[in-house]
Amino acid sequence: MKNKLPALFLAAASTAFAVGPVVVFQDDFSTDTLAADYSASGVDYNATPETVTIKRGWNGGANHLEIAEKFDLAAGGATELTVAFDYAFGASMYGSAFTVQYKDGSGTGWQVIDTINYTGLNANDDGLAANPHTITITEGATYKFTDGAAIRLKAADGNGNKGYTIDNLTVSVDQSPVSGKGTVILISGLGGWLLFGVCLASRGGTRRGRDNSGRK
Ligand SMILES: [Ca+2]
Q1: Which of 45, 51, 114, 198 could form a disulfide with 167 if both were Cys (CB 3.0 to 4.6 A apart)?
Q2: How far is the CA of 169 from the centre of ligand 1 (A)?
Q3: What residue segments make up the domains of the chain, in order of their start?
Q4: What is the CA(215)–ligand 1 centre distance, in A?
């Protein structure tokens, strides 16, 4: 969302009635939010450029970045969930890969919804996450949409001293999943941050997000 106005309109509309797509989580890593917003293992916050790096797995690819907030996909009629981010591999990471994983709230466990493999085209050692990537899953027998759904990015291969650089992580749905939870959008205003949106009764924290107008 390079333009602030659509984000503002979307936030306002989503609080009143279901309209899609609706951003339910967004982070450009302009600040170190790892402690508050993620359950992470083997993840570094990089102040310059503002990204995160998931280290290549030291123990069966265990390193991961998991969004701490669980999503309520049971209410609101959502049928599609989209995860988008920018990424890069370190230049020496031939044969390496990371996955995008989804877990519903019914005990199914983590499901791999996408695997991103190294190619020579996406090598990058300067910390810039230059490759846009999007994966969408549809509600059905394979992917159940429940209250308590979760998303994580996880290293899929073994030892190495490099990592996967990630930026501009966004989770969105085709219809608002929010029932009893508000959508909070942070708009970068003149000279600072302006909080816009609503925050309704929350079971697991507030919905939050940022626009990308000041992304680095
Ligand atoms: Ca960034």
Answers
A1: 51
A2: 9
A3: 21-174
A4: 5
